[in-house]
Every structure is written in structure tokens, then in C-alpha cells.
Design goal:
CATH superfamily of the largest domain: Bordetella uptake gene, domain 1
Number of strands: 9
Shape: elongated
CATH class of the largest domain: Alpha Beta
Order of helices and strands: HEHEHEHEHEHEHEHEE
Largest sheet: 9 strands, mixed
Structural class: alpha/beta
Helix content: 25-40%
Distance between the termini: 34 Å
Strand content: 15-25%
Number of helices: 8
CATH topology of the largest domain: D-Maltodextrin-Binding Protein, domain 2
Number of domains: 2
């Protein structure tokens, strides 16, 4: 059975809400050496900031360094491949977010996937997105943006932090639910997309609130609406997109996952060190 594209996007966006099952560590020495935490976006992106903050706390708790390794590209697949190929002893972790779940549906022939080659450790964050435009863009509200886009079909460049990311799908869902015609322009991470937006190479983008907040506060970018179901405390004056486009909502999640031995795929794993549990 084939799903309509709108239903597919709703499922893809919602798939990230599937719970991650945390593993209970046994009383065993871990870690025995520095831990590498791989992030699928460049330095400065929201997942990178979160990873560095949590990495500092983990380093103090572990008594070992936590090294952040940024591996952007291919919608998160490069970072996923690096972790899946690492030794399955819990010393290489991945910041997993919505793109990795979405990629399961987009790349059927992918060499590695989150459902097969890595194991969940802990759920860490929930995030919302905001529709941004450059400070010179004529629209100042969601209604004005939709009207402007309909009056200028194919002339608005909608940037994203990469093809297949939740920022990309947020824009696709918005486009389909409003009937506007915009051009998707993917960039390699939020910083590059922000620069393009402020330079006028792109006109709008959906981005995580945490990444875009400094630009909103400085006036470099203008926020038109948020993807949550209620106004956000950090952006109390920015309206909810769903109030103008009924049913529109996007929420982002992130987890930590670790590598898994191929021989362990049919077994439960109970500890960071990769020791096998009972069948």
C-alpha cells in the first residue's frame, strides 16, 4: 500500500518519537580509556552544543576525557557509519537525532542503519523548530509569508541544514500543507545555512530554536513562527505556526547510541562494554 506524501512526511517526522530503550550497566569498570562522542552536524549546531555540555559532565563522572568528533554530511549517515564500524565496547558513542530515523525510510539500501547496527543508551533532549527569514524579507507573519510565496511561485529559496534532516522535512511538510511553491536549498549544517540566509542567497529556513536564538536576539534573522503546539518561553512573542496552518507541528528528539557487534543483532545487550546478555 502506498501512502500519500503528506501522510509519509507525518510518519517520518513522528517516527523520531519512538522511545529509546536505555541499557542498565553492570558493576564493571567503564570507561577504561577516553570516550569518543560523534556528532552528525558541524561545530556550533544545536546537537554539537548539547554534546559538548553533556560531554563535560560525563568526563567529570567517568574520570576520562570525552572527545567530540564532528562528522557532518550525507544527512547524518557519515557519522552513523563511523560509529557502526567502531569497536562495540561502549567507547564510541553517537548523538542520534531525527535524521537517522528518517534515513531508514529514505535510504532502503543503506549499508548501516540505526535499527540494525547501533544500540540505544539514553534519551537526552527534545527540541522545536522556528521558521526564519532574513531581516530584509518583506513578510513579517506566517500569513504574509504564505501570501508572498503564493504570489512568487518558485522564487523563494528555502534553506535547510541538509537533505533528509528534520529542518528539511519541516519545510516540506509546511510547503505541502500550505500549497506554496518554494525551492529547497540544502547546506552543510545550520551555520552555513544561516550565513546564506543573512547574505541573501536564501530567503527562509526552518531551524532548531537553540541554534537560531542568538541570530534572532541580535536581529540578524527574523522569526515568524514556531513548530510547537504552544508558545515557547524563550520566544514568547513568536506565534505558533499551527494556529495559522491547522495540524502543523514538528518536534525533534535526540539520543545517545553506541556501536553493536553484528553477531549481537539477535541478542539483548545490557552494558556499555558490549557484554552479551541472555537470549
Amino acid at each position: 500500500m502506498k501512502l500519500p506524501r503528506r501522510d509519509f512526511l507525518h510518519l517520518a517526522v513522528g517516527a523520531a518519537a519512538l522511545p529509546a530503550m536505555s541499557r542498565i550497566a553492570r558493576a564493571q569498570a567503564y570507561p577504561t580509556r577516553p570516550v569518543t562522542l560523534i556528532v552528525y552536524l558541524p561545530a556550533g549546531a544545536t546537537p554539537d552544543i548539547i554534546a559538548r555540555l553533556i560531554g563535560q559532565s560525563l568526563s567529570r563522572r567517568f574520570g576520562q576525557s570525552v572527545v567530540i568528533d564532528n562528522r557532518p554530511g550525507a544527512g547524518g549517515n557519515l557519522a552513523l557509519q563511523a560509529v557502526a564500524r567502531a569497536l562495540a565496547d561502549g567507547h564510541t558513542l553517537l548523538m542520534v537525532a531525527n535524521p537517522h530515523v528518517i534515513n531508514v525510510t529514505l535510504y532502503e539500501k543503506s549499508i548501516v542503519t540505526v535499527t540494525r547496527d547501533i544500540v540505544p543508551v539514553a534519551s537526552i533532549t527534545k527540541n522545536f523548530f522556528v521558521l526564519l527569514v532574513s531581516s530584509s524579507f518583506p513578510a513579517r507573519t506566517i500569513t504574509e509569508f504564505i501570501a508572498h510565496a503564493k504570489a512568487n511561485p518558485g522564487k523563494i529559496n528555502l534553506a535547510s541544514s541538509g537533505t533528509g534532516t528534520l529542518a528539511h522535512l519541516s519545510g516540506e511538510l509546511f510547503r505541502m500543507m500550505t500549497g506554496i511553491d518554494v525551492v529547497h536549498v540544502p547546506y552543510r549544517g545550520p551555520p552555513a545555512a544561516h550565513s546564506a540566509l543573512m547574505a541573501g542567497d536564501a530567503h527562509a529556513m526552518f531551524d532548531a530554536v537553540g541554534t537560531s536564538l542568538p541570530h534572532i536576539q541580535s536581529g540578524g534573522l527574523r522569526a515568524l513562527g514556531v513548530t510547537s503546539t504552544a508558545r515557547l518561553r524563550m520566544l514568547p512573542n513568536i506565534p505558533v505556526i499551527g494556529d495559522v496552518v491547522p495540524g502543523y507541528e514538528v518536534t525533534g528528539l535526540a539520543w545517545y547510541w553506541r556501536a553493536q557487534r553484528h553477531s549481537d543483532r539477535d541478542r539483548r545487550t545490557d552494558q556499555p562494554g558490549g557484554q552479551r546478555g541472555p537470549r
